[in-house]
């Protein structure tokens, strides 16, 4: 893990070098004061006050130089940390865009967000302060110890003898700190996920007056976070209290041992005074290293969570996969089986043949596998058995990017970005002209409505399109697909959540959208797929019936039962 962490310094080698040089210079200057103090005291005994003034002036100039070094470290050092944080965040976001759908099925949005934000902030703080503290403290400890040995070697060795005890205590408590911080990060991620879910569903919460339930769910995560932090603070308290005691022990040892040497005459009062002054140079960086261990554990826990995602395998094309330009649209599924859970098969030996430009409908009870078929075609999930071919080519031999460019999807669950209407339509083809955007909107029967808005195409739709009705959002989604102009179209319950009047408007737009495209339709409302070239009834992951509308009605099987049931419900309504 350390090697991977250090690799992020490479793009910033120049800045890192200057930062460490500044840290080196500042630590060297810090050792000057006790040395100068000792010599000044010696010259005062000889009455050479002019020398004292000159040395003081030089020392002031050196401290001004250290002022500049400290400013550089605080400013440019933090800039370096932020750049590394931005680099990691970019890599993580890039990686997330290429992870398979299954990852997002299993991980909540709020938890993912904490990996990108708060976790990487702690990593950037470690990236900045870690090397600086190592250089400054390391050099200060070494130089101050060497200097202490020149004053009085036995007393210096006695002082240094306490350091191994400090290291042992630090190593013993650091493991507990990291474990506690890792748990607190997980708890913090759960809180973020709960907040994101609750805020997104605030309208449902208010509609069902379930605010108390949401607060109960939030408090459960909040209590878990408190407990995790309590354990972290307990480990931190043990760490700081024991290390502080050892640091106090340093002072006791130095006072007693120095007093004995002074009493025996092996140590002069001037040297003893210089030793006491110089001891702070030895102890202060040790204290800094001790306190830095908390930051190290926080940063290490954040980096561990970062690489845990980065190590997940991305969606990968086969070595023999090649990009395609525009497909004709002939779809074949041969003996296709699939399961999300090894213990429960969703699709079993599905065989379909959809000719270019034809409309093929999938109907049947919920959970039968209709949407799964739609997800397998653009390779949101990879088939586990059988073959799917487009124009006679297995989809595994087509790059995912070019495959998905040839497929347009209109779903029941519409997603619009919190951007302008224009930007949401442009998502279908980012290089489209304004005229093409308007033409797509016209074909989706949404252009006139857009012009009625004060800001027209510049109107921001709000998070997930909250400022628009369901029908308006759906038509913007249809305009997006018109702009994309794919040869293959998937309509997954595209009108099931709409009222009858809006459904007619949307259906007219969809009918035009389907012209000249191979269309796979999933629908519960059988009235919307009566004109499909072929219909398959999916139940329990299998095709139980297949044919056109009239043929299936004549068979008086599952399709006929569904049709009569739906017709009776409409009459009763």
Characteristic terms for this protein:
elongated, 573 residues, 4-stranded antiparallel sheet, 21 helices, alpha/beta
Q: What structural class do the secondary elements suggest?
A: alpha/beta
What is the overall silhouette? elongated
Largest sheet: 6 strands, mixed
Radius of gyration: 35 Å
Tally of DSSP β-strands: 10
Mean pLDDT: 81
Strand fraction? 5-15%
Poorly predicted parts = none
Amino-to-carboxy terminus distance: 64 Å
The neighbouring-strand order within the major sheet is 6-7-8-3-9-10
Share of helix, binned = 55-70%
Count of discrete alpha- or pi-helical segments spanning 4 or more residues: 21
Architecture overview:
The chain has 21 helices and ten strands. With 573 residues, the chain is α/β, with parallel strands linked by helices. The strands form two sheets. A six-stranded mixed beta sheet has the order 6-7-8-3-9-10. A hairpin with a 2-residue loop joins β9 (534-539) and β10. α7 packs antiparallel against α12 (269-310), α9 packs antiparallel against α11 (211-264) and α18 (470-484) runs parallel beside α19 (500-514). The radius of gyration is 35 Å and the shape is elongated. The model has no long low-confidence stretch (mean pLDDT 81).
